[in-house]
Amino acid sequence: MALPCRSAATLKKYLVLLAQDSCEFRHPEIKSLLSLYGGHFSNTQDAQSKSPFCFLQLPSEEMARKLMKRTVCAKSVFELWAHGKSMEELKQSLERYPLESMVSYLQPNSTYKISIHTFNKTLSQKEKLNKIDVLEFVPFRGKVNLQNAEHIFYLLEDYGPEPNNPRKEPLQIFFGRWIADGQRDLINSYSVKKRHFIGNTSMDAGLAFIMANHGRVKPNDLVFDPFVGTGGLLVPCAHFGAYVCGTEIDYNTVHGLGKASRMNQKWRGPDENIRANLRQYGLEKYYVDVLLSDASKSIWRKRPLFDAIITDPPYGIRESTRKTGTQKEIMKTELFPESHIPVQLNYHLSDIFSDLLNFAAEFLNTGGRLVYWLPVYRPEYTEEVIPQHPCLKLISNCEQTLSSHTSRRMITMEKVKEFEGEDQFAHVKDSQSMQYKGHNSFREKYFSGLTKRMAREGKAKNEEASTGNYIRQENRQDI
Ligand SMILES: C[S@@+](CC[C@H](N)C(=O)[O-])C[C@H]1O[C@@H](n2cnc3c(N)ncnc32)[C@H](O)[C@@H]1O
Prior knowledge:
Blueprint: E1 12-18, H1 23-36, E2 53-58, H2 61-68, E3 74-84, H3 87-95, H4 99-102, E4 111-119, H5 125-134, E5 143-144, E6 151-158, E7 172-181, H6 185-189, H7 205-214, E8 222-225, H8 234-239, E9 243-248, H9 251-255, H10 274-280, E10 287-292, E11 306-311, E12 322-324, H11 327-333, E13 344-346, H12 349-363, E14 364-377, E15 392-401, E16 406-415, H13 426-431, H14 434-437, H15 442-457
The chain binds S-adenosylmethionine.
């Protein structure tokens, strides 16, 4: 085929093949990572879109490779050579692709192979070979090598959003050169099921990596988790080369003591702690420390200090939300007889979130990110319930549904303004607002919905067993 010669544009078009889980988290992840590497996310698709395909305009292949070294939401990236609604349109589109951008991958002394990827339809081997034959209009000159090809080309076909009712013909067809795969393997290799030290609320590995990516964690950063638990969020940050530290109010968790969370194990064994988790993955050198401390009482002198704060605060579902009490605070509440001074007080959810934002505003470096989970009662959710702070800009807000009436939202914020004297009162104002106070009743709403549903479905005992059989059922806590 004789191809017209056209000069290549400065920005090249890339096609990203996205994974089909955690759909809401995918575009913000890619956007965050591109901003880390100086690129822009120009995708016009709706962020809520379930389509596994998204387009990027990038200045270099190197940027595409950097992106794929980090993403757990994307499977692969391709240099897009052509796309259309039919093979004929694909051919016409390829004719418009600049020859000089193709020629070095089509040399007679090179090897290549063509693979087919279909979304929502399975093709037989024969059908695949037929499709490869149709691609004869691509001016391949090299030799086919199925085992070890220098250049891998892909024909990708989208059969629409209905897996059980796929279209006869594809909705859209893409052709491009494979560049790199993403980091989906990390989800398995860092799985909590195989982790040395786990607890009832250890963060799922995939979501933990997504949080680190939304937080733009990078090598040599200092990352902090104020509610560190078993350190499930420190692990991906250390994997990306950041130094990690945290605080935790529970003595047993910090010291790896007490009852084990794992099935078939009664007590935690020796050396079950966060440092050992990092050691398990060869990341011990990134461990700074974990302190037995109350996140509501700041212990840090230097400010700003952290490049990112990545955390999963307690929601009070199967663990209490607690903070240490001072004698003054306790006297104020007048709930206790004078003779009784409790060590810990209830820590209201609205206070947890306003303290967290205020802390992030004060202790994050400018440009640093706060990523955290906010539990919400879905029937009452509006964007107004998302806590705000004058120093922090909301970057993304992605929902993970937990039940018909509850979900949690991964909130990403960026410090955009220096913390000044008056900003320290922002949280007082906010935590008094009615919208934020609504967070305090999450626990009651969670259980009232649960009780009604259990009564309806008549399966009270098994309600939460489905989420993970490696954790003792009575201990299991996703939120
Ligand atoms: C949802 S869990 C965090 C789980 C953690 N991301 C992991 O992967 O294991 C919340 C943690 O916050 C701790 N916590 C509760 N109140 C606290 C406080 N005031 N200060 C510090 N930690 C607190 C709890 O003991 C619990 O371990």
